[in-house]
Target: YbaK/prolyl-tRNA synthetase associated region
Amino acid sequence: MMRIDPTLYTTIPSPEGRLEKEMAIYSILEQLGIPFERLDHEAVATIEDCGEIDQYLGITIYKNLFLCNSKKDHYYLLVMPGDKTFKSSPIAQQIGSTRLSFGAPEILEDYLNLTPGSVSITGLLYDQEQRVQLLIDEAILETEYFGFHPCINTTSLKIKTSDLIERLIPYLNHPITYVTI
Model:
């Protein structure tokens, strides 16, 4: 069983013991006036590890996959429901790409300031050159809330999906390409 602080917080945590990149996300949410619920927990590496987190937050944490084309000259961040299976071919066809595979951890860290297990839409903050194309499964638009990590996999946040689409993503300055999975 995972260690989880069952308290749901709606405030920014103390910066003590927190990474600068995590604190930057709270600052952005505060600046944009986006309310959130925060749950602290032990590190999670996969979507399967998020089951208990989902229950505490009353949401589904989404899969965030860092992908690249076969030439490794185009990179993508795919956000999709955790209960769906990623299949490269249909997504590649929808975006007009060659076969997709997982991007290298070094590129993930260089482009999004993230490490495997903590891949999150919030990493787009660090992609000022827009080297990563944002892909979102249309099914996410049907949900009221969106769950994600603030650049670190020891905390999960819950915000309204409308705040994600209308406020946070425009701030991150990455146009959305919607796909169907």
